[in-house]
Amino acid sequence: MRKATRRRLTVIVSLVAIGLVTLGAPREVRAQTPTGTPSPAATRPAPARPTPSDAQVLAVEQQLLCPLCVNERLDVCTLAICNDMKQLIRERLAAGSTPDDIILFFETRYGPKVRAELPRRGFNLVLFGWVGGAIGLTAVAAGCALYSMRRDSDRRLARAASHTSSRPPGSDDRWVDALVDEAHEDDAPRGTR
């Protein structure tokens, strides 16, 4: 039992030591230049960044949704996170990023729900296809139902017509004839009886 505890303790201490060494390591290593020689970056002037137009920024904002609101586009939302996203869009456009790169950046950060329009690929094709499929299936089912009802109606009419024409006069329906005669008598004017 003590050996297992010592092993666990040794592993934990080793992992902590590796983590501390990794955190303390320098992130970027640059070569040193002599103090008398100017660096090439210092001699070149920084290129002027073009400022993005409002139309470019608005076009990107309209393709994104607020990550917190439900179906509210970025250009309409006034939350602080949306204002930060708008500022980041301006900065990235000024840095030379394309609108597709910016949209992809926000999609990787917030997920595909941040896109205002679903891309028509992969599983989304199923989402778009089920609507058309459901409409088509409903139309086929309604057509079959109407055809069946009409066919049954035609059969009943044909059966009724053949049944009444094949019945000899004075058959089992004498009571119906009596009711019809009685109805005619009720409809007749009173003086004719």
- CATH topology category name of the domain at 49-114: Helicase, Ruva Protein, domain 3
Alpha-beta classification: mainly alpha
CATH class of the domain at 49-114: Mainly Alpha
- Strand % is under 5%
The shape is elongated
C-alpha end-to-end distance: 121 Å
Task: Tell me the radius of gyration.
Answer: 42 Å
Regarding quaternary structure, what we see is single chain
Largest sheet descriptor? none
Question: Would you mind describing this structure in some detail?
Answer:
With 193 residues, the protein is mainly alpha-helical. Among the domains are: 49-114, Helicase, Ruva Protein, domain 3, CATH 1.10.8; 120-156. The protein is 62% helix and 0% strand. It is built from 7 helices and no strands.
List the helices and strands and how they pair.
Blueprint: H1 2-24, H2 40-43, H3 54-61, H4 80-95, H5 99-110, H6 123-165, H7 174-187
Helix pairs in contact: 3-4
